[in-house]
Amino acid sequence: MEAGNLFRFIPLNQPPQRRHLHSPSFSSFPRTVTVNASLSSQGESGYRGPKPRKEWIADWVSNNDDLVRSVPIYVGGFSLLAVLFNRTVSGIAPVADASSSQSRADLLTLGLAVTNILNGLVWLSIRPKSISVVNPNGVECQTIASDLPDFVISELLWAWNSLSDVTCCRSLVIVYDGKCILQIGFAAASFSNGSDPLAVDTNKLIEGSLYQGVLKSASQSYLANLSLYPGKSELPFLPSNTQAVILQPLGDEGIAIIGGDTIRGFTSSDQAWITLIGEKLDSTLTKVI
Question: Is the per-residue pLDDT at 47 higher than 70?
Fold first, then answer.
């Protein structure tokens, strides 16, 4: 059977955008919420659980980063001036005398003051690299295996909508039973035609160390900064500037590749949630593939 019969290509008119949890796309899923009337009538006073605690010191330091980094310079400079002033008004000879305990104490204090000043200069020169969201360099695509039942397609699209709405996910590829059944979001442009997405070479992917390592460990692999991993070459179908990738095994038969637009953009909660989504998808796909 030709590859063209296995997949159907559906172009997207709009780029996938992040939406809030109250996005209309979730309106088709009915939800029932039960509220205790006695608690609702009490308002906020009825809540007796733990309340979030504010870290005043941490918040102040975060909001005054430049000032905090400069504190050692001010302390060292003030200490240096204090030692010189004390030396001047105390009537001690300005020349240091090794036999004098005062001179030895002054030299030790001067060394500590200079150390503080140098430490402050280091703090000001070394700053954490700012992390920002990037726009993927690629084309939008939505390729789904044509031989899947409608309820499986709906679940795959639900997984994509959920991930793209509440995480930094911008690309999703699912390979199961040796076939690419879903490629959605942003993908690298094809070499032959820049407006078409680059198809997933499942044979090459399955033979790669990333795929084999994830299936062997049967656990999620998080590449928080994809540019630092040599295995990036095994994922040519993702946009070239993909920042982070999660490789989630789907049982023993497949893998979900989730590309993000932010370095270390997937939180620990996101990772745990993606693991549950992977288990749900594996349970569904096992029934039909």
Answer: no
- Report the pLDDT averaged over residues 2-31: 42
Query: Cα(282)–Cα(285) distance, rounded to whole angstroms?
Result: 5
Query: CA dihedral defined by 242, 248, 254, 260, rounded to 10 degrees?
Result: -20
User: In this predicted structure, what is the pLDDT of residue 48?
Assistant: 59
CA atoms of 11 and 62, how far apart (whole Å):
44
Q: For residue range 103-159, list pLDDT tens digits in order.
A: 788 888 888 999 999 999 998 888 777 788 999 999 999 999 989 999 999 999 999
Task: Let me know how long the chain is.
Answer: 289
Q: Name the pTM for this structure.
A: 0.63
What residues form DSSP beta bridges with 248?
256
Between helices 150-166 and 268-288, what is the axis angle to 10°?
170
